[in-house]
Design a protein that fits this description.
Helix content: under 10%
Number of helices: 2
Strand order of the largest sheet: 16-15-12-11-19-20
Number of strands: 22
Number of domains: 3
Order of helices and strands: EEEEEEEEEEEEEEEHEEEEEHEE
Shape: rod-shaped
Structural class: mainly beta
Strand content: 25-35%
Largest sheet: 6 strands, mixed
């Protein structure tokens, strides 16, 4: 009588994909021993309670199986289901986040603003998503409500100053908050022109009247734009400067009628002495001509001739470099 060959077992273990997954499995191949029948040579009892030759739905951890042939010979098989390494980007904030990855391979890529000069510069970003937001490069410089000989609204204008180069001025706009009734939003949008650092822009209801009134100092303006009727400030109205439809600077108080307020500029002007400042209104950044100071005048040269004492400019003179005598 020949003894049967001992039971021999080989196995293929598929690891679980994560510590919480139950997708591990074991595939056994058994030989030797004494078969009970052609179709059923062995019985199996897994540590999971399964009685099949192969087992699935396993979490990470140890697993075992008792294999018995028809002579009662026993083979104890032991194994371990590990966590399979799935390499990839494991950061859910990354553009290429892989929810199946359990090992970060350093492949994460992030979209964001790559320009260090932008307000929202992202040092982690590797792909530019065109989201860069830049600080305003335009500021209010002067608010004008001159009395000019032609009358009407021809003496109304707003003076702006470029604190940096601007490739497209049309991202900026103006709004007039009439009579303290709060914001009216963007009422005037600038044309799509480029502006250089340090340039002065005048938006005037009547550029020809401004030219006559400013006389030799009209050349101080690098760009003169014809305003729409939206530029309608009456000396007691606040002004809002917008960038991409967001307020970036305010002159006066949009919720207060400026009559008798220290920032009133009726038939006069306000001029920023701290050029380039932005944000909320700070009256210490501004000088004022005094209410009605332009009444009866015909040109700015006339005001200059009656307002200078020796080499000192009166505080209520609308200032330009050409007036610094």
């Amino acid at each position: 009588m020949v003894d049967p060959a001992p039971i021999s077992v080989s196995s293929v273990i598929v690891d679980a994909s994560s510590s919480t997954s139950t997708d591990g499995s074991v595939d056994l191949s058994v030989s030797g021993g004494t078969a009970c029948s052609f179709t059923s040579s062995y019985s199996f009892l897994w540590s999971t309670g399964d009685t099949t030759e192969d087992v699935t739905g396993l979490a990470t951890g140890p697993v075992s199986c008792i294999i018995t042939d028809c002579n009662g010979c026993i083979y104890n098989w032991n194994g371990f289901v590990y966590i399979g390494i799935v390499s990839g980007c494991t950061d859910p904030l990354a553009q290429n986040f892989n929810p199946n990855a359990n090992t970060d391979d350093g492949s994460c890529v992030y979209s964001g603003c790559l320009d260090s000069l932008a307000l929202n510069y992202d040092s982690l970003a590797t792909i530019d998503d065109s989201s860069c937001v830049y600080p305003p490069a335009l500021s209010l410089q002067g608010i004008i409500d001159f009395t000019v000989p032609s009358g009407s609204s021809n003496g109304k204008a707003i003076h702006l100053y470029a604190t940096d180069s601007i490739s497209d001025l049309s991202i900026y706009g103006l709004g007039i908050a009439n009579n303290g009734q709060g914001t009216d939003g963007v009422e005037y949008v600038f044309p799509p022109i480029s502006v250089a650092l340090g340039e002065n822009i005048l938006i005037a209801r009547s550029p020809s009247d401004m030219s006559l009134y400013f006389d030799v100092c009209y050349s101080e303006f690098d760009h003169v734009l014809t305003a729409t009727s939206a530029i309608s400030q009456n000396g007691d109205d606040a002004i809002e400067l917008f960038m991409d439809s967001v307020v970036v600077e305010t002159f006066g108080d949009i919720n207060v009628d400026g009559t008798w307020e220290p920032w009133e500029y009726l038939d006069s002007w306000a001029y920023k002495i701290n050029s380039g400042t932005l944000g909320s209104f700070d009256i210490t950044n501004w000088s004022f001509g005094g209410v009605n100071c332009t009444d009866g005048s015909t040109t700015h040269s006339f005001i200059l001739s009656v307002s200078t004492v020796s080499t000192t400019i009166k505080p209520w003179l609308y200032r330009f470099n050409c007036f610094e005598l």
